[in-house]
Design goal:
42 residues, mainly alpha, 2 helices
Length: 42
Amino acid sequence: GIYGMNFKIMPELNWEEGYFLVWGVFILIAGGLLSYFYKNGW
């Protein structure tokens, strides 16, 4: 998971909106990959 990555600096721990930003980026990447694969017939 996300919190098992052992980074010393985790922006969402000190920034209130960081958690939502990280999840938003994850969702955008996953959606982009899904649409790419769908359009290329995978």
